[in-house]
Design a protein that fits this description.
With 271 residues, the chain is an alpha/beta fold. It has two domains: 1-91 and 183-262, Rossmann fold (3-Layer(aba) Sandwich); 102-182, no CATH class. Helices cover 39% and strands 23% of the residues. The protein has eleven helices and ten strands. The strands form two sheets. A six-stranded mixed β-sheet has the order 6-7-8-3-9-10, with helices on both faces. Strands 2-1-4-5 form a four-stranded antiparallel β-sheet. Strand 9 (232-237) and strand 10 (240-245) form a beta hairpin. Helix 6 (131-150) crosses helix 7.
């Protein structure tokens, strides 16, 4: 297949396209001319040292920041000038590095809060306990319980969030994002602060979500972990993309080794 044919095939499969995107803060360029495609159903990892522009890129995708140049396309719709709530309604949900659960609510109630994106009952119908409102409440509760079971926390639905480990709290955050109807999950350092056992459980969960058709785009510092599960790896340095490919391609990329990893092999690469 020709290069143009390969590019066209990739774009047809893409759920998200970043096209020559740039943004600057007070004259400081945080992201500079970055382009890549996210194929539907893949796990994509964005890696790079601190200050590389990784988290800024997530903010651009969710609409929290607007690019100064370039375009962002989601499901064949241009969204770089679209409000964050409209982007969320298209199936994009971000799970932040610092999971902030409501301490005065149970675990399942925290997950139910994620359903606000698609709920339709009005304040009046809810207050009057009209039949449509009651049916929707049951649907919300059932959805939250299913998502908690999916992330392995069904037995702790009515616990207080404070009783959970950090890894479990992160999984509650994932369940809440899934309850919102996300088919593109944006994860900001999902492995941060996890112990070895929790890291393994999270990797297995992300692979299960991928198997269920969820596309995952994550920013992560633990390169050895994400290289084991990512279909595609994008490497940033000083706001610019220096490499984009499979884990094997990234591990053998001379520019990545020279500019991001020093003179040694990629962290965790013993293969």
């Amino acid at each position: 297949m020709s290069e143009k044919g390969k590019q066209r095939d990739t774009e047809e499969q893409a759920i998200l396209e970043i096209r020559d995107v740039s943004v600057a803060y007070d004259g400081l360029v945080a992201v500079n001319g970055v382009s890549f495609c996210v194929r539907r159903g893949d796990i994509i990892a964005i890696i790079g040292p601190n200050g590389a522009g990784k988290t800024t890129l997530l903010k651009l995708i969710t609409g929290l920041l607007r690019p100064s140049g370039g375009e962002i396309w989601l499901k064949q719709q241009r969204v770089d000038r679209v409000a964050p709530h409209r982007i969320a309604s298209l199936g994009v949900t971000q799970v932040f590095q610092d999971i902030q659960l409501f301490s005065n609510m149970s675990v399942v109630e925290n997950v139910m809060a994620g359903c606000h994106v698609w709920t339709g009952a009005s304040f009046l119908s809810t207050g009057l306990r009209l039949p449509h409102s009651r049916a929707e409440e049951r649907n919300i509760s059932d959805t939250a319980l299913r998502k908690l079971s999916l992330v392995g926390l069904g037995q702790k639905a009515f616990y207080s969030p404070s009783s959970l480990s950090w890894g479990e709290q992160k999984r509650v955050g994932l369940a809440r994002a899934l309850a919102a109807g996300a088919d593109l999950l944006l994860l900001d350092e999902p492995y941060g602060g996890l112990i070895a056992e929790e890291i393994g459980k999270l990797s297995q969960l992300l692979l299960e979500l991928q198997h269920r058709g969820i596309t995952i785009l994550m920013v992560e510092q633990l390169t050895d972990v994400v290289l084991d599960i990512a279909n595609q790896v994008v490497v940033l340095r000083y706001g610019e993309k220096i490499a984009d490919g499979t884990a094997a391609e990234i591990q053998g990329n001379e520019q990545v080794i020279a500019t991001y990893l020093g003179n040694g092999p990629l962290e965790g690469d013993e293969r």
